[in-house]
Design goal:
Elements: H1 17-31, E1 61-63, E2 67-69, E3 80-88, E4 91-99, E5 111-114, E6 135-144, E7 148-156, E8 164-171, E9 174-178, E10 192-200
Antiparallel strand pairs: 1-3, 2-5, 3-4, 4-10, 5-8, 6-7, 6-10, 7-8, 8-9
Length: about 200
């Protein structure tokens, strides 16, 4: 917003037209179409119809999630790992994709995937409990190429590690379990993992 600096005068002093016109013109310019985000109070209530299309949303941001395992970390090799996210206020929406290829090393142990923004240590069902259950972030999908597909959910325990999520999947023939290099199948060339969800940022 333009800074308005009206001239101050003393008693008996002659006032030029510019002393009045300049600040008045500045105010008129702001009112007549030049209001923007910098002009509006954080407490202002703006109707959605007054906002430009997509205002406050913007494009999703790409990021490369970390991919770790409980015993030996995997390596993506010539496969693919990527993610994208958008943060609106304190709410983060994210997607993660992993595609194994010929030189991908599956590591050893339960998998964890890096979140784009640190999660808040809140949102538990029972804040008085000494041991808290993980928080469900969203859906997850894992495919054993050409053999079977598994559906489940992504989860986080922000009190333990607010920067990563785990995944549990299963299907009609396999009980839900945390995914790893060997569960629910041996993760190898052609297999993939998809994760998406939302959570509260710290």
């Amino acid at each position: 917003m333009a800074t308005i600096n009206p001239a101050t005068v003393s008693d008996g002093e002659t006032i030029d037209a510019s002393d009045l016109n300049n600040p008045i013109n500045t105010i008129a310019n702001e009112i007549n179409g030049n209001l923007d985000n910098a002009n509006i109070s954080a407490s202002a209530s703006i109707e959605e119809t007054k906002l430009a299309a997509g205002a406050g949303m913007g494009a999703w941001t790409d990021y490369t999630p970390t991919w770790t395992a409980a015993t030996t970390n995997p390596s993506i090799g010539n496969g693919y790992i990527g993610g994208s996210y958008i943060q609106i206020g304190k709410t983060v929406f994210f997607k993660i994709s992993v595609q194994a290829s010929t030189t991908t090393s599956a590591g050893s142990g339960a998998y964890s995937f890096g979140l784009p923004v640190t999660a808040a240590d809140t949102g538990y069902w029972d804040t008085t409990a000494s041991v808290q259950p993980p928080i469900n972030l969203g859906i997850a999908f894992m495919r054993n190429a050409g053999i079977a597909s598994y559906w489940g959910y992504s989860f986080i325990d922000p009190a333990t590690d607010p920067d990563v999520c785990g995944v549990q999947v299963g299907n009609e023939a396999t009980a839900m379990a945390t995914i790893s290099n060997s569960a629910p199948f041996a993760f190898a060339n052609g297999d993939n993992i998809r994760i998406e969800g939302s959570y509260q940022a710290a």
